[in-house]
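Slide 14.
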Amino acid sequence: MTSETLWYANRATGAVCLVLFTVVVLLGIAVRLRARVPGLPRFGTMSLHRTLSLSATAFLALHIAAAIVDGYVDITFVDAVIPFVSDYRPRWLGLGTVALDLLLAVLFTSLLRARLGHRTWRAVHRLAYVSWPVALVHGIGIGTDTGADWMTWLTVACVATVTAAFAARLAHAARAARRTPAALLRAAEGARP
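Slide 15: predicted structure.
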């Protein structure tokens, strides 16, 4: 495989990862809000979230492999898993490594969910909310297509949809917080004959 082919593969898989992980975050928020994807039952939304998470992870593995195998820049496996040690653009590559490490924590705890318990799994799973923007900044900082119109619009669309979904998630949490146990107790007492 030529260096040019690997370079295009790296660029393409990076863009695909942005889209897939954006959809994964949106589906994760939908699952948390108990929302449904039109045409799917509620459990279908969760199943789609899991399936796309694994697909996105596979594309991420291809993205990392293309970067390591490509001889044009010197990125090693160690550079891909230990943040900020690379000689090649250490800040931007390091952010990608941080995002990968957070994602791996989410992935492994999801695979071990039954053994860890729900609270531990949920606490670690929230790292996905950190991983996505860190990966986004990595792509903006190191991506060779960052200045291209199509990539700018793709990035803006991904940021806008995740921001809107996260705002809906925060609004839902605020509404739930207003329903305090005392307010629920008063409502239950008012409903008694």
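Speaker note: The mean pLDDT is 90.
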